[in-house]
Write a sequence for this structure.
């Protein structure tokens, strides 16, 4: 793992802020284009365990999201059907990214690893309010002079989700 | 509650259900006492307790429970509340431990619930404490039915198999499909829905009607073909029920690696049991009264429990389930299909949470509560299952769009709310049988 230049750090930050903005502005089709064809979009469950025991599920265990590009495409397509009632009328969201760290995977690699803290505030209908807070780790790949998400892992802090559903992206 | 008020909650053979059933605190309190403290409730799967000392936590109604496996392999269900000040003695979702030490004053209990450690026993209690009777409260009835762990607080309750009644032959078609039994994917989906638990249970017991509308987007995006009118709702009695499309739930959805496998198993079962198997396996949507539900489809299987948290909130615990003997690649496919379609982010289940929370919220108003909910679909058009599917199968059935199972669910619910004990219910049923 290697540190990156401040120019590259700034570039990656701007990429992540842009991506968050696409979601907040419900530009889901544009958002989907930021993911590689072999992407893995994953949100493992988190359990309350005694100190020293593993809290976050492994890849063969249960997750809240375990998506490929194909299933992400279905999720996005669904939002444009007018029949996805959990997002009809749509949620209003505001995403905050902080504590962003970026590392080059190796000198020759076209991939970067990023880690940030994520806060997503959602309001729906009259008084539905959800706050999702967690950590996000991405692998970004350089494709045609731009960045794409080749892998995303989101770990929320909650072990019991206090929300009717997860009908938004993270 | 007055008997007349309970009579009012469910009328016309279950076709009308008062909205008070979903938001009224008095109804809720009675429900905790007469439904949840009396019925067989699902705690989890024995694959969650592999080694001696393994435990997980669950709920029975609002009561927190620790489920443990002792050195002798015996599974116990214990009230997760210290006998001294009521503190929760186990605060993890799962793990392995030989004892549970209360963090408040340090009373310690072993995995069978026995009180084995008390700080200052001599200097504080003069060695006079009645330790034998101060173990964690044990759930007196517990059974491991083909890997499913069920428990019941009521010593008078029927055995689990009697409680299943006509449901047993159908449930076995899900549990005994191939040798080796079932297994839960490691981990439990846990989330809260701001809705009454019965909206979820009644949806899973018999509601195919919502599928083309609530889940209409699944068809629009090409995940499945349009819904046909061919299917069934089977009410085997005792408030249980299941139903789906003929050919198995998800028969009109795109195939996965699991689909050919389950079709092969089904053909084998049909040779042994009869052609009806081809129509109703996998079993589709299901509720075992009161709050255990399952989906058994051509793509995946899930178990879930709708734990009540007051009349207007529930905490859902949900598992992905597969046959233990399956190849690993198919197990992973089942896990992914479940996560994609059900659970909190599922492209089907997202909408369910939305419905149940809004149904509850819109029922709270005084005016709304004066108007019953309508469960009349298919009333008067029920037929004996054996008449339609043959093979001496128990129960009554309706078509795919019938609400026969919801009517059975609410009639059973009302019967339990009215009765002061299981013996009263037994007497009633005996009298009814004699009438016939």
């Amino acid at each position: 793992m290697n540190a990156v230049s401040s120019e590259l750090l700034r570039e990656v930050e701007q990429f992540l802020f842009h991506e968050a903005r696409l979601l907040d502005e419900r530009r889901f089709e544009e958002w989907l284009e930021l993911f590689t064809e072999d992407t893995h979009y994953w949100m493992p469950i988190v359990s309350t365990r005694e100190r020293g025991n593993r809290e976050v599920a492994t890849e063969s265990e249960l997750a809240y999201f375990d998506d490929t590009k194909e299933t992400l495409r279905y999720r996005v397509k669904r939002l444009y059907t007018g029949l996805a009632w959990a997002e009809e009328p749509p949620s209003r969201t505001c995403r905050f990214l902080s504590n962003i760290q970026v590392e080059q995977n190796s000198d020759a690699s076209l991939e970067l690893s990023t880690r940030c803290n994520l806060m997503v505030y959602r309001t729906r209908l009259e008084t539905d309010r959800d706050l999702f807070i967690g950590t996000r780790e991405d692998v970004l790949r350089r494709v045609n002079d731009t960045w794409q998400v080749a892998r995303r892992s989101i770990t929320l802090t909650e072990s019991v989700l206090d929300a009717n559903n997860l009908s938004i992206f993270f | 509650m007055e008997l007349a008020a309970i009579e009012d909650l469910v009328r016309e053979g279950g076709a009308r259900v008062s909205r008070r059933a979903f938001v009224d605190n008095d109804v809720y309190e009675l429900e905790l006492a007469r439904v949840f403290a009396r019925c067989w409730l699902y705690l989890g799967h024995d694959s969650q307790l592999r080694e001696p000392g393994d435990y997980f936590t669950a709920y029975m109604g609002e009561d927190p429970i620790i489920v443990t496996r002792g050195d002798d392999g015996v599974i116990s269900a214990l009230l997760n509340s210290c006998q001294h000040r009521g503190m929760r003695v186990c605060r993890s979702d799962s793990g392995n431990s030989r004892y549970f030490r209360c963090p408040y004053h340090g009373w310690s209990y072993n995995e069978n619930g026995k009180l084995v450690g008390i700080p200052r026993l001599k200097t504080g209690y003069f060695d006079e404490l009645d330790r034998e009777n101060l173990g964690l409260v044990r759930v007196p009835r517990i059974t491991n039915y083909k890997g499913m762990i069920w428990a019941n607080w009521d010593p008078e309750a029927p055995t689990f198999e009697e409680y299943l009644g006509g449901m047993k032959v159908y449930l076995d078609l899900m549990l005994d499909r191939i040798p080796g039994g079932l297994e839960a994917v490691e981990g439990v989906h846990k989330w809260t829905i701001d809705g009454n638990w019965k909206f979820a249970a009644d949806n899973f017991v018999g509601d195919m009607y919502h599928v083309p509308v609530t889940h209409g987007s699944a068809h629009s995006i090409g995940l499945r073909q349009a819904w046909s009118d061919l299917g069934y709702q089977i009410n085997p009695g005792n408030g249980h029920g299941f139903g789906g499309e003929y050919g198995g739930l998800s028969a009109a959805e795109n195939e996965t690696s699991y689909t050919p496998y389950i079709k092969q198993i089904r053909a084998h079962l049909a040779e042994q049991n009869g052609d009806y198997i081809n129509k109703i396996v996998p079993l589709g949507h299901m509720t075992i009264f009161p709050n255990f539900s399952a989906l058994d489809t051509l793509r995946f299987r899930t178990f879930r429990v709708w734990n009540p948290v007051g009349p207007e909130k529930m905490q859902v615990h949900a598992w992905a389930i597969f046959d233990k003997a399956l190849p690993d690649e198919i197990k992973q496919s089942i896990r992914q299909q479940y996560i994609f379609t059900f659970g909190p982010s599922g492209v089907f289940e997202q909408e369910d949470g939305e419905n149940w929370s809004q149904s509850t919220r819109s029922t709270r108003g005084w005016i709304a509560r004066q108007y019953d909910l309508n469960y009349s679909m298919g009333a008067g058009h029920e037929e004996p299952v054996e008449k339609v599917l043959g093979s001496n199968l128990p129960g009554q059935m309706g078509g795919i769009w019938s609400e026969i199972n919801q009517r059975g669910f609410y009639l059973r619910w009302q019967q339990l709310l009215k009765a002061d004990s299981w013996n009263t219910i037994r007497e009633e049923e005996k009298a009814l049988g004699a009438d016939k």
Notes: Strands of chain A lie at 2-3, 35-44, 63-67, 92-104, 111-124, 128-143, 146-156.
